[in-house]
Amino acid sequence: MPRRCWFRAAALGPATAALLSGCATVGNLTQVTQLPAGQYTVWATDDPSLRAAVPWRELNQVYQLGDTLRLDHQTAPDSAPTQRFYQLPLRRYVTLQARRFDVDVFTIPFKVRPARAGVPVQLNTNFNGALYFGRRLDFYRLSTYRGPGGRVVPAIRATGFGYGGFVGLGSTFITGDVTRQTPGPEYEGFVMHAGAAGIFDARVFNVGLAVGVDHLLGPDGQRWIYQHRPWFGILFGLDLN
Q1: HEC states along the chain?
Q2: How many CB atoms lie within 10 A of CB 217?
Q3: Dihedral, CA atoms, 11, 13, 14, 18, nearest 10 degrees?
Q4: From CA 108, how far away is CA 130, in angstroms rounded?
Q5: Which position has the higher pLDDT, 108 or 241?
Q6: What is the predicted pLDDT for the residue at 54?
Q7: Where is the signal peptide (predicted)?
């Protein structure tokens, strides 16, 4: 049977729990109603009792039970987990952090190419798609406040961010100016691209900043002035997992 222990901070008012899940780059915090069950570490808190009871950065399986959090910690693979129950007092907070592998599909609505070979800075708006994979970080801040009539209300808000790499396919407009040919053909070239990105989770959609390089397919690839040269862009997409 799991071992159980209760601890509670010196309450400043009726105890209740709240969760704030967060993604740290920039953006709005999003209200949620339930902490997803999963493995978390205690990232930050102003509650001395929690700080003393749970070792810093210790990984726990956490469940939200109304105004209470249950933290299960297993010290060995075949040992019974230790269960801790925590009620967050009024005007206290705790931030939990979760990590996971992330896979997303993105579009790249535009690429900014630096000036090169006499061609000024370009803003390309051709179609581009990318498969992103990387590390996802979610931060959950639990707090409480007094609502109408003095009722203690849990506040649950969420943000998250990630970092990783991407690969994909797209197109770019090819002219004689960018292939050093005068006159030269004008057509939509097919490119493969890859790079790195930082992602912000806006809950309705994901947005990110990317830096990457393109590989132009076909005979003009060797003459293209942007072949394997860095570009900067914006990613938009949906979370797949």
Answers
A1: CCEEEEEECCCCCCCCCCCEEECCCCCCCEECCCCCCEEEEEEEECCHHHHHHCCCCCCEEEEEECCEEEEEECCCCCCCCEEEEEECCCCCEEEEEEEEEEEEEEEEEEEEECCECCECCEEECCCEEEEEEEEEEEEEEEEEEECHHHCEEEEEEEEEEEEEEEEEEEEEEECHHHCCCCCCCCEEEEEEEEEEEEEEECCCCEEEEEEEEEEECCHHHHCCCCECCEEEEEEEEEECC
A2: 12
A3: -80
A4: 7
A5: 108
A6: 87
A7: 1-26
Tokens of 128: 């581009």
**What CA–CA distance (Å, rounded) separates 117 from 12?**
67
Determine the pLDDT at residue 89.
81
First to last CA, the chain: 33
Residue reference for tokens 């938009």 = 236
Task: Specify the length of the chain in residues.
Answer: 241
Whole-model pTM: value is 0.73
Which tens digits make up the pLDDT trace of 149-167?
Answer: 777 677 778 888 999 999 9
Domain edges within the chain: 3-99+138-145, 101-133+161-239
